[in-house]
Amino acid sequence: MSDGELVDAATLAGVPDEFQRLWTPHRMAYIHAGADAMRAHCPFCAAPKMSDADGLIVHRGRTAYVLLNLFPYNSGHLLVCPYRHVATYDQATTEEVAEIAELTQTGMRVLREVARCDGFNIGMNQGAVAGAGVDEHLHQHIVPRWATDANFFPIIAKTKALPQLLGEVRESVSTEWERQAAQPR
């Protein structure tokens, strides 16, 4: 084989199998960092220090903000986080709890408009044992759902098909958020 010659993947080393590969090299930063580094460098404390586009932030409130999940269950998967680094809901102030609830409601309205979703999964996993990926910083999930969004990928291949890139989703959600904020309620 000479330089520049195209090679058919079937002729390369390895044994063909029925598995599909979904390459996600951006996740290596989290794998290499490990849980201790995640605690030392909380992504939810870091995001508000970035530009909205770089932090995937769609709205900044007084005590809490809304951003896209970097590893979404579905396109448009939002997280509502207090700025303050607290681990559980009972550690949040009354003002933070109220704003998290208000931002969750607005997030639902925005996603209904831009994503045309049929429903939502909303919830908080508190602590690693409860499934929180970042267990030291409180965050609420808003996951849009559609009547037709279930397919065999997650069940058979542990793969989620996401039809939009995060930057596109952030732009559409942020724009709609601003439009709704300008309307009287």
Structure notes:
With 185 residues, this protein is an alpha+beta fold. It has one domain (25-182): HIT family, subunit A (2-Layer Sandwich). The protein is 36% helix and 14% strand. It has a five-stranded antiparallel beta sheet. A hairpin with a 3-residue loop joins β1 (57-60) and β2 (64-68). The termini are far apart.
The Rg value, from CA coordinates, equals 19 Å
Per the CATH scheme, the topology name is HIT family, subunit A
Determine the CATH superfamily.
HIT-like
Please state the structural category: alpha+beta
Helical content (DSSP H or I, runs of 4+): 25-40%
CATH hierarchy, class: Alpha Beta
Task: Outline the secondary-structure elements.
Blueprint: H1 28-40, H2 43-46, H3 52-55, E1 57-60, E2 64-68, E3 78-82, H4 94-115, E4 119-123, E5 140-145, H5 152-157, H6 166-182
Antiparallel strand pairs: 1-2, 2-3, 3-5, 4-5
List keywords for this structure.
5-stranded antiparallel sheet; alpha+beta; 6 helices; 5 strands; HIT family, subunit A
Briefly characterize the structure.
The chain is an alpha+beta fold and 185 residues long. Helices cover 36% and strands 14% of the residues. The radius of gyration is 19 Å and the shape is globular.
